[in-house]
Design brief:
Blueprint: H1 8-26, E1 41-44, E2 47-52, E3 58-67, E4 74-80, H2 85-88, E5 91-100, E6 110-119, E7 128-131, E8 134-139, E9 142-145, H3 161-169, E10 182-187, E11 191-196, E12 218-225, E13 228-235, H4 240-246
Parallel strand pairs: 5-7
Antiparallel strand pairs: 1-5, 2-3, 3-6, 4-5, 7-8, 8-9, 10-11, 11-12, 12-13
Length: 259
Amino acid sequence: MTRKFVAPALIVLTVLVIGALVYTFTRATPKTSPAAAPDWITTAAPVDGVRPGADPASVVIHVSLPAGGAGCSRSPRVEPLSETPDELATAVNVNVVFDSANQAYGGCPTKQPAEVPFTLAAPLGDRALVLNTEAWHRTGTTFARCDKFLGCTPPPDHCAGQWVDRAVFDLDVPVKHLNGVRTVLACDGSWLVLDLDRHVGDCPAEGTSCVPGAGPIQRIVYSWDPRGWKLETGTKTGTCDEIRAALPKFPAALCAKLP
């Protein structure tokens, strides 16, 4: 009887093929790890306006939320802040917030308006409504932002320091130096004249030993506008003749107050 021999190379090849097939069909399929849940971050919502609600104890807050991408915004809401009875007597402080999971630059290129209803514990009345540290007050059928210098109730006297502060601030003077850089010379409610010494700003606001450097004094004239003091002109000589030449309606009675 003739014996048949299988070539060693063929045996090796057969073993390799069988092993490959066994591995292919028996290896464990890798598990796909689930996508990580996005991190939703709570942040302040820009407030565009406020209107009264259905009753004296409710308001509707208008906000602008980021949009135009995945996870830009959700759940706009009001978060009341803890307050003492004394604080609640004059104002209601709350935060208007929303959640966002998209912090990528340009990830939310548009804005989406939204309304956030809020019901107070008691009618708002004459109290200020402070939203994200910005105060609003009732003005008839709607609400308006309280002014940074005038507050929620502007002083009826146009010569009051708050009105002057507001005018001087528009001259690009640092807030901490508003009082120090200006000297009110004349004010009758319709006209305001003040001297402005910007060099006083070289001294720290709390300093008492600092002597500002000498520099030119600007004499500035304002007229009253329904929205506040309106800058009319500056002068070179500071004399009333120069002022009245530029502003014929400037009252001569105020000239006596101008050094």
